[in-house]
């Protein structure tokens, strides 16, 4: 198992205090990496993450959105993201992945070696990466994976 | 927990030897009760059960279809069911729920107190009913429930 | 243009008097040929025809269903079709395409040289075949074709 | 019939020369008014307009997109729209509806008394408004309406 690298976030939406994976140790975590102008994220992955949030609301799963902008930076600034989160009624915590000085792939996206958006990352109670999946994931399989990390021992 | 009543099946399709819950003790079981002329079964529940079969193929989950005819009996005889299973490419074992002398609700459907079709029943490794659900179930929730009974001890 | 062959129907559902294309001359007609155990008909073509019926209710378009059984005959007898029409709430007139002595493709299906089900046939006000389409048709294109034959002169 | 007010556009994408309704007189026109952060536009209306563009490519129908920003102005500037058009592969001409000095509803949106986004406007060959529809429109009905204005005399 690979240890999940800590998040590197420039700004948070929907929460008052920053979240860290270190704090969350002992709980399973789903990180949903997206871009607001990524069609596959908007059509499938974001609604799926919203459904995960609702379906597992009574468990100790923590859902985190991560805005991993690696293209069209000027079109997806935090101001635009804020309007997007409002229009799409996204209520889970969303962090802006910290940009690097040279532009391109932001810090957390690089640390997890993500191949693009959407990417769904599952972290188990021990803080290890249980899954790192690029693209569209079937609900039935995702439900099973999430229950699997919920059932696993700390 | 309620003990899962044994299946009462008049005829099987897609398998050579009859299946019994007694044989399957120790393994989780999903029973999908349907009627071939039930629109909700055809549109949602049957494709979902086919996806369960594919998604959990490497586990010891046993998927069973149960044709619980309680109306339009003359239109849903085993001959028609056989054509239906062929056209819809249904590959999991399907039993014809045993009709009663007076017509109406067949025997297994009555034993499980099913309210109609589709009904999805989950049986855990101990042979108890873990869920008995009428109507459409979300894939994400079903995936989680199935993983839950897969993870539970015998 | 090819003259639309007359319908050869063994039995009608949802109407009291038989329909003939000769009677309907001067009005545009949509014939929806289906089988009750054809998955593509049930999932797409039948709901589309129901939507055509509702969308063009105020025009003089006549929608006709035609049950063109060419396989699994014993599973799709008129008794089964009657239950099917009830369960799927199909309200437009449906004729049972007249079987031939040797089984196989029924009479109207043969006369129109249909390749399978679903098939959608459009007949213009002059009684000519305006379109004879096998498989799934896009709603936008079908809407345009129907308006085209509605707008055309008698 | 109401005469269609001329477009008031600050900037065009996907064409070299500005389009005017005056130039287009004699041809039917579909104006699709949207905002890039409007969920109903992204999920339904924009894909529908792309399908209109493809389905009616061989006719003289002119499809025009109009970015009618009336909220979250700072998140939907022309730079962001350009990235959006690229990511969603929108190939038809898109005009930025001219903002007013006081913000709020832009000029063309006001002239057509649009109630929000998405709005679909059909203009006939004579330059009159044939339809002004707010919200989601069924493909079958839209196909019929478009064929209706295509068939109508100049």
Account of the protein in words:
Four copies of one chain form a homotetramer. The first copy, chain A, is an alpha/beta fold and 154 residues long. Chain A is built from five helices and seven strands. Chain A has helices at residues 21-24, 39-55, 78-87, 107-111, 139-151, and strands spanning 2-3, 9-13, 29-34, 62-67, 94-97, 119-123, 128-134. Chain A has a seven-stranded mixed sheet with strand order 1-7-6-3-4-5-2. In chain A, α3 links the parallel β4 and β5. The model of chain A has no long low-confidence stretch (mean pLDDT 96). Chains A and B meet through α2 and α5 of A and α2 and α5 of B.
Please estimate the helix content of chain A: 25-40%
| CA(first)-CA(last) distance of chain A | 14 Å
Number of helical segments with 4 or more residues of chain A: 5
Largest sheet of chain A, order of strands side by side?
1-7-6-3-4-5-2
Which blocks of ≥5 consecutive residues of chain A have pLDDT under 50?
none
**SSE order of chain A in H/E notation?**
EEHEHEHEHEEH
Mean pLDDT score of chain A: 96
Topology:
The structure is a homotetramer of 154-residue chains.
Chain A: E1 2-3, E2 9-13, H1 21-24, E3 29-34, H2 39-55, E4 62-67, H3 78-87, E5 94-97, H4 107-111, E6 119-123, E7 128-134, H5 139-151
Parallel strand pairs in A: 3-4, 4-5
Antiparallel strand pairs in A: 1-7, 2-5, 3-6, 6-7
Task: Pick out its properties.
homotetramer; 154 residues; alpha/beta; seven-stranded mixed sheet; 5 helices; 32% helix; globular
Quick take:
Four copies of one chain form a homotetramer. By secondary structure, chain A is of the alpha/beta class.
